[in-house]
Amino acid sequence: xxxxxxxxxxxxxxxxxxxxxxxxxxxxxxxxxxxxxxxxxxxxxxxxxxxxxxxxxxxxxxxxxxxxxxxxxxxxxxxxxxxxxxxxxxxxxxxxxxxxxxxxxxxxxxxxxxxxxxxxxxxxxxxxxxxxxxxxxxxxxxxxxxxxxxxxxxxxxxxxxxxxxxxxxxxxxxxxxxxxxxxxxxxxxxxxxxxxxxxxxxxxxxxxxxxxxxxxxxxx
Length: 220
Fold this sequence. Notes:
About 20% of the residues lie in helices and about 35% in strands. By secondary structure, the protein is α+β, with helices and mostly antiparallel strands.
């Protein structure tokens, strides 16, 4: 698997824009009074102002009878976990295109290729001795995992999927509760049993965080 690429240019652009908006609205103009910091922060915490922390993609790959992390995000800081608002998992994939179980062809039933989001324990928490959920054969550093999507059973064409964890939904709450400083989130491609192959044409994970503009009001 080729090394993933990361684009971190957008967060700086959006953060600079948010700063400009904050300072502009906090000062009076001929047409309006200065807005209180609390109101400005409500405007800037709208999802349209969230920051793109990471956009990580991976090259095509194939996985047979195992689970393989195909995208691994950089470790989270404690502050980033608190500010985390959305994770988007995108991939385009199919299975081997045949199976003996013809009754389930073209459906998602009986499919043994799939994708998971995995929270894996980082080096900063290496002394943690709790038992974490894992599949047979390993994963002792896994804090929690979420099944994202099964491939269509005996699918002959690549299909695109997008799964979103967003602030306020149950999966995002569970992920944030599991994350500790130094942990990583992985997009994992899985296949079980010898004949099953998970063909991944492309994959990408985006992470969106709240802009930490609260520090501006704390300094006022």
